[in-house]
Automatic annotation (TrEMBL):
Keywords attached to this entry: Membrane, Transmembrane, Transmembrane helix
Organism per entry: hydrothermal vent metagenome
TM region positions: 113-136
Name used for this protein in its record: Tyrosine kinase G-rich domain-containing protein
Length: 146
């Protein structure tokens, strides 16, 4: 699994590759759901603490204007809480849905490269074998001439 980010655009890219092409979309989706659930849980805890604090301050407040401003702040916090629970992925949007890779998208192993390297290696080994056999034949002829 690899996670990279672009600092200019703020785009985060999550990649996962596996031999089974149906498995990576499930892993990426589970990762996004877990990360989103973690963010939501942390922010809900913060919002609950803010709500408790503002509710306590509102009970202790004496002036009408102070109560009204605290009430509007509590309203904004509750609105934020509702928005947070309504999104599937919190604070992120999925640009491309993870789909199983098609066979034409296969990237490993690179068969063309393997074929070219093995062809060139076989030519070099063939030339080496010819020179080696000629060398052995030449030494046998020298021994038989002596």
């Amino acid at each position: 699994m690899s996670i990279s980010s672009d600092k200019k655009s703020g785009l985060i890219t999550v990649k996962y590759s596996d031999a089974n092409r149906a498995y990576p979309p499930l892993i990426i989706d589970a990762f996004l759901r877990d990360a989103s659930a973690y963010l939501v849980q942390n922010n809900l805890n913060i919002i609950d603490k803010k709500l408790k604090y503002f509710s306590k301050e509102m009970q202790n407040a004496d002036g009408f204007e102070l109560r009204q401003s605290l009430s509007s702040m509590i309203s904004k916090i509750l609105q934020e809480k509702v928005m947070m629970k309504s999104k599937e992925y919190y604070q992120c949007d999925v640009l491309t849905v993870a789909n199983p890779a098609y066979i034409k998208d296969k990237s490993k192993p690179k068969r063309g490269l393997i074929l070219v390297v093995s062809f060139i290696t076989s030519i070099i080994l063939g030339i080496f074998l010819v020179f080696f056999l000629e060398f052995i034949k030449g030494t046998k002829e020298e021994e038989s001439n002596e």
